[in-house]
């Protein structure tokens, strides 16, 4: 068996960082990253980007050395992706914040509102309902992170956790402040509005969960395969006929329901910003589906049936 | 080649020399292209020519506008001997030309100017905010010295900047304009910031007293807004933003005047 030689150069300075000899032809990029990590302990594999061209795309961990367009002396370029943090850690942190913060406002912990209101409860039952819905939503997210989602990438750049937590925690505090405020004004159309909002909210929560389960079942444990999602026996998944990313569609619906329930402008604003972000993600996902699968169903839109 | 043209016309995130319009005829080798490719090339060349013509007109107009402002300010001061009432006399012209600058965000978004949309957006928005939401709405501070300070700074900066762009587009840039653009800012930028911050600070008590632009609880939207604290946050935002913009200009200066190649931090 002919062995390969691998040299790794810095993508920017072109300095020779590492030379590996007697590398097996069936070695994967992942294994090469581990070997590189040994000679440079500060660059653990998750923060290595290995590519064939200094400005090219990163190679995947699963790529096999002998199947790459390289000679028996392979030259790779390395870029440091910066400190990395696992997706699970980020999700858990960014979702626990809103859960805890909202409850602090709900129970009117000291220093938030005027002292005479400390540890009092709201006289409007919609405020109690809203707290239950908000808490349920984030507990669901936490449990899904732990038990349902299968992540393609293990890690993301460390600075993302600060960005994401600022977004989630900031908005949660802003919304919770007004909904749990002693001077809160309940919805104009009263009971009707709240009931409709609750139905929409619950419907979309079940829908969102169904989609997450369906997506999980597309992928066997431990693998990184990608397949086209299709409707299953669960009616909540039939939306796959019309939409590529129904998890975002349902998420938007749930927050729309919550906005209707609380009739609170900060909540509406949060819903809007989330909608914009999810639309960007949905369009990207839709585009990569179309690129990857020739037979992708043409009727589907990224996030809103026929519209977006 | 067409791929490169596409990149030039799409949104560039590079923080390069602003207002340099993209070249209209690429120096690349074209093989025997199809009729469609040649038509596409012609369309892109026309687009480039139109963009250049528009930008030239725009920059000449803005240079003229700020020159008019400068002369009006000088004439007022020479005739009246005081700065009291100066703002009122030039308010309309200032609002017109400063608001018109919103177009520059569009130029970046369309890709006909190779500057970051965000950098331009932040700068133009802070100007618009000062003009419309501070000096225009809070009449009591219109005669403050700090207002004159930032007006003078803005005028000098804009005349230099727009004439630089104009001469650049006409491919006839006198060195002293280039020198002015990349050196005066070192003094003008901090002075302008000082003028703006002092003005907002002077306005605070009047905002507090009048409760303008503010909304209190309870209301059916379940939201509140305090313009007083909004202004304070706005002032605090200068702390992270001003150094970034200033050092961006310093990097540009090193590159343009001394031909140094600065390796930007990759995102």
TrEMBL record, chain A:
CDD domains: Ubl_TECR
Domain TECR-like N-terminal: 5-80
Keyword Endoplasmic reticulum in annotation: yes
Domain of life according to the entry: Eukaryota
Cross-referenced InterPro entries: 3-oxo-5_a-steroid_4-DH_C (IPR001104), SRD5A/TECR (IPR039357), TECR-like_N (IPR049127), Ubiquitin-like_domsf (IPR029071)
Localization of this protein: Endoplasmic reticulum membrane
Record membrane topology: Multi-pass membrane protein
Catalytic activity: (2E)-hexadecenoyl-CoA + NADPH + H(+) = hexadecanoyl-CoA + NADP(+); (2E,7Z,10Z,13Z,16Z)-docosapentaenoyl-CoA + NADPH + H(+) = (7Z,10Z,13Z,16Z)-docosatetraenoyl-CoA + NADP(+); (2E,7Z,10Z,13Z,16Z,19Z)-docosahexaenoyl-CoA + NADPH + H(+) = (7Z,10Z,13Z,16Z,19Z)-docosapentaenoyl-CoA + NADP(+); a very-long-chain 2,3-saturated fatty acyl-CoA + NADP(+) = a very-long-chain (2E)-enoyl-CoA + NADPH + H(+)
UniProt record, GO biological process: very long-chain fatty acid biosynthetic process
UniProt keywords, alphabetically: Acetylation, Endoplasmic reticulum, Fatty acid biosynthesis, Fatty acid metabolism, Lipid biosynthesis, Lipid metabolism, Membrane, NADP, Oxidoreductase, Phosphoprotein, Transmembrane, Transmembrane helix
SUPFAM superfamilies reported in the protein's UniProt record: Ubiquitin-like (SSF54236)
Keyword NAD found: no
Pfam families: Steroid_dh, TECR_N
Major location (coarse): endoplasmic reticulum
Residues of the 3-oxo-5-alpha-steroid 4-dehydrogenase C-terminal domain: 155-308
Gene Ontology cellular component terms for the protein in this record: endoplasmic reticulum membrane
Sequence intervals crossing the membrane: 85-105, 164-184, 196-215, 236-258, 264-282
Pathway given in the UniProt record: Lipid metabolism; fatty acid biosynthesis; Lipid metabolism; sphingolipid metabolism; Sphingolipid metabolism
Enzyme Commission number: 1.3.1.93
Gene Ontology molecular-function annotations: very-long-chain enoyl-CoA reductase activity
PANTHER family: 3-OXO-5-ALPHA-STEROID 4-DEHYDROGENASE (PTHR10556), VERY-LONG-CHAIN ENOYL-COA REDUCTASE (PTHR10556:SF31)
Known role: Involved in both the production of very long-chain fatty acids for sphingolipid synthesis and the degradation of the sphingosine moiety in sphingolipids through the sphingosine 1-phosphate metabolic pathway. Catalyzes the last of the four reactions of the long-chain fatty acids elongation cycle. This endoplasmic reticulum-bound enzymatic process, allows the addition of 2 carbons to the chain of long- and very long-chain fatty acids/VLCFAs per cycle.
Family the entry assigns: Belongs to the steroid 5-alpha reductase family.
Protein name according to UniProt: Very-long-chain enoyl-CoA reductase
UniProt organism field: Cyclopterus lumpus
UniProtKB/TrEMBL annotation, chain B:
EC numbers on record: 4.2.1.134
Region span, Disordered: 12-44
Pathway stated in the Swiss-Prot or TrEMBL entry: Lipid metabolism; fatty acid biosynthesis
A Pfam family this chain is assigned to: PTPLA
Spans traversing the lipid bilayer: 51-73, 118-135, 147-164, 184-207, 227-247
Composition bias, Basic and acidic residues: 28-42
InterPro entries noted in UniProt: Tyr_Pase-like_PTPLA
Subcellular location: Endoplasmic reticulum membrane; Membrane
MF annotations from Gene Ontology: very-long-chain (3R)-3-hydroxyacyl-CoA dehydratase activity
Catalytic activity: a very-long-chain (3R)-3-hydroxyacyl-CoA = a very-long-chain (2E)-enoyl-CoA + H2O; (3R)-hydroxyhexadecanoyl-CoA = (2E)-hexadecenoyl-CoA + H2O
Superkingdom field: Eukaryota
Location (main, coarse): endoplasmic reticulum
Role this protein plays: Catalyzes the third of the four reactions of the long-chain fatty acids elongation cycle. This endoplasmic reticulum-bound enzymatic process, allows the addition of two carbons to the chain of long- and very long-chain fatty acids/VLCFAs per cycle. This enzyme catalyzes the dehydration of the 3-hydroxyacyl-CoA intermediate into trans-2,3-enoyl-CoA, within each cycle of fatty acid elongation. Thereby, it participates to the production of VLCFAs of different chain lengths that are involved in multiple biological processes as precursors of membrane lipids and lipid mediators.
Family the entry assigns: Belongs to the very long-chain fatty acids dehydratase HACD family.
PANTHER family the UniProt entry points to: VERY-LONG-CHAIN (3R)-3-HYDROXYACYL-COA DEHYDRATASE (PTHR11035), VERY-LONG-CHAIN (3R)-3-HYDROXYACYL-COA DEHYDRATASE 1 (PTHR11035:SF22)
Designated name of the protein: Very-long-chain (3R)-3-hydroxyacyl-CoA dehydratase
Organism: Cyclopterus lumpus (Lumpsucker)
